[in-house]
Specification:
binds magnesium ion, Rossmann fold, four-stranded antiparallel beta sheet, 2 domains, binds adenosine-5'-diphosphate, 252 residues, six-stranded mixed beta sheet, alpha/beta
Length: 252
């Protein structure tokens, strides 16, 4: 039997009386790759914020493995194996690539362990960050200031940084937005490698071509409700999904 790593059970969220997430339930199997898609404003980022603990849910529950994480703080969710990237880049623009990657280690190292320059363990953290950059083919950017790097490289650095927490489940909010074709290919290669190493992926993405190349499962949100769950191929033939996208600039 396939084991669910993440399950959402009738999750609800209101903002000032407006229901933004409406009874959403779905599961993400351990080791799988799932896309969360839907028109702008559908509630995708809000759902990520609920899963990662940025927002508290109003009703329902969220399980990670066998643990109900609905009401535990986001830093604790991180320790239980949940890591994420944000829709807008949140790297420290004036720090170097390797320094940014090291910031992703804080949930394991503790801030003191990372920042105290003579700390015995410090070499280990530097080495680990450099190794991750090497494995992603990003060695050559190691010492460069992040603000000077192309957008596509920054997006990959963000993914590497999120991985430093050694997550079981990685949430990526529009990782391919704004990337050109070759940057998108490089990102896909990185995500495929991460997935092969056993990390479960949940990705918000508009580009159905990207989704088809990465994911086995698609969950579609529209006005805060789940309107479809299935394979990318099924999603592209599903009337309700096509209708949700009509009139938007994201028609696949
Ligand atoms: N903190 C907030 N306060 C009030 N409304 C919010 C907040 N965050 C999101 N919303 C609203 O929730 C809806 C869904 O937004 P969002 O989750 O960002 O959609 P998506 O990521 O699918 O484009 C939108 O109508 C948005 O205005
Ligand atoms: Mg969003």
């Amino acid at each position: 039997m396939e084991r669910a790593l993440l399950s959402l059970n009738q999750v609800n969220k209101n903002f000032g009386g407006l229901r933004v997430i409406n009874d959403v339930s779905f599961a993400v199997t351990a080791g799988s790759r799932t896309a969360l898609i839907g028109p702008n404003g559908a509630g995708k980022t809000t759902l990520f914020n609920l899963i990662s603990g940025v927002y508290e849910l109003d009703n329902g529950s969220i399980q990670l493995d066998d643990l109900d994480i609905s009401h535990i703080p986001s830093h604790a969710r991180c320790r239980y194996g949940l890591s994420r990237s944000f829709q807008n880049i949140r790297l420290m623009p004036h720090l170097s690539t390797v320094e940014n990657v090291m910031l992703g280690q804080h949930s394991r190292a503790g801030m003191a362990g990372m920042l105290f320059p003579l700390g015995i363990g410090r070499n280990r953290w530097v080495r680990e960050a450099e190794e991750a950059l090497h494995n992603a083919g990003l060695d050559s950017y190691r010492g460069q200031i992040v603000a000077d790097l192309p957008y596509g490289i920054q997006k990959r650095i963000e993914v590497i940084r999120a991985l430093m927490a050694q997550p079981k489940l990685l949430l990526l909010d529009e990782p391919a937005a704004g990337l050109n074709a070759s940057e998108t290919d490089a990102l896909l290669e990185l995500l495929n490698r991460i997935s092969e190493e056993g990390v479960t992926l949940l990705v918000v993405e508009h580009d159905m071509n990207f989704v088809s190349r990465l994911c086995q499962q698609v969950v579609v949100l529209n006005f805060g409700e789940k309107i479809f769950q299935g394979t990318p191929q099924q999603a592209q033939q599903e009337r309700a999904v096509l209708e949700a996208y009509l009139g938007t600039d994201h028609v696949a």
